[in-house]
Amino acid sequence: MYQRSSKFDLAVKSAHRATNRVTTTLSDGTVLWDTDSLDVPLSLVIDGEITAASGAIRRQGSITLIGDITDSTIEKMISELTLWRPYRGIVYPDGTEEAGSLGVLNVTNYSMDDSGRSKRHRLLLADSAFYVSDRRLTEDFSYSGDIVSAVRALLTIKNPNISFGSIAASPAVMPREIFVSADSDSWAKALELLREVGLQAHFDVNNQCVITPLAAVNTEPLWEFVEGVNSHVYGAQKSSERRKYNHVIVVSEAPNLTAPIVAHAYDTNSASPSYFYGPYGDIPYRYRSSLITTQQQADFVASSLLRKILGRRETLMISCAVNPYFEVDDVVRFVRANTLSTGNYVIERLSWPLTHDRPMYITMRRGPQDV
Predict the structure, then answer these.
(1) Can you tell me whether residue 219 is helix, strand or coil?
(2) What span, in angstroms and rounded, lies between the C-alpha atoms of 194 and 209?
């Protein structure tokens, strides 16, 4: 979860007044429009949604505006240089506000419908991964060294102003030659390389490229949804799959190995329905890679993949009061007797409305300590 005040944590769990705004800026921070100003196009925002989910592009969304907007203004709105920054938050009784960013986004598609009384303008948005992916390499790329350093160098070639945030630790690997051919999708290749050391990357709400573990490593919940008085959960839907992997096998196919490199990771939680040594049986998931060069790297990747796919696949989707500070892979605790779903869950998808009359939706899977 992103940083916020304890005052917000208390207020969001009870009746409160919501605030919703959208700001557009240039890449240097210059503000073009803000919904707080009534004489600018963004005061015409009537609908929208921002989502965050696991995948190549973490944040995407849409915004609908209504009214007459000049062609020159539209050109500025859809320019690659224009960054859209939606916020959701709370207005406190004393009139002060606390709002959290839902991301920094670019327009990927624009459409207009003038069949009604007023023109409706719809913008589709995506975070910076979209444009990093779109800027294909014009020359071959080669690098000798560790994978994380190679990824940073690769992404900087076509995006010299890219900003990197936190970078998770990775296992020691043998320096090696990494080659990426011209016309490749550098973002897709970066994600592929990071997976070989149990990592992933995305752009956060501050537009920084952060590198994190492939699966949630925190087992302590960062937030609790508890049924009862002042519960901020409005509804829940649960689904389950009968069987899922409980054993990961990682095999290195790197050339010139002096000895085979194979790693195993098992569900060794005796309280788990998918306990490896119990009646569930052995359901293996095999992963092969030519980029794995040490036993430590193979062990790390195996344990990371196991956390990602472990045990029974139970998915829970809830509707709740809007909270902009959640992030994908956050571990939360859900306690609601009538769904029989008490336990820890890992967030997989978030959906925030840009209007005051709808809840947000969170999709999560049963956490690794509660399978």
Answers:
(1) coil
(2) 13
CA-based angle 290:167:158, to the nearest 5?
75
Whether residue 275 contacts residue 267, with contact meaning beta carbons closer than 8 Å, is answered with yes
Q: Is 236 helix (H, G, I), strand (E, B) or coil?
A: strand
**DSSP string covering 282-348, please?**
--EEEEEESS--SHHHHHHHHHHHHHHH-S--EEEEEEES--TT--TT-EEEEE-GGGT--EEEEEE
**Sign of dihedral through CA atoms 253, 259, 260, 265?**
negative
- Rounded to whole angstroms, how far apart are CA atoms 273 and 343? 14
Reported as a single tens digit per residue, the pLDDT across 184-242 is: 999 999 999 998 888 999 999 999 999 998 876 667 889 988 876 556 888 888 887 76
SS3 53: strand
In 3D space, the residue among 299, 296, 304, 291 whose CA is nearest the CA of residue 147 turns out to be: 291
Task: Decide if 66 contacts 46 (C-beta within 8 A).
Answer: yes
Place of tokens 């007023």: 118
DSSP, residue by residue, 110-122: EEEE-SSSS-EEE
Q: What is the pTM of this model?
A: 0.83
In terms of Cα–Cα distance, which of 241, 246, 242 is closest to 284? 246
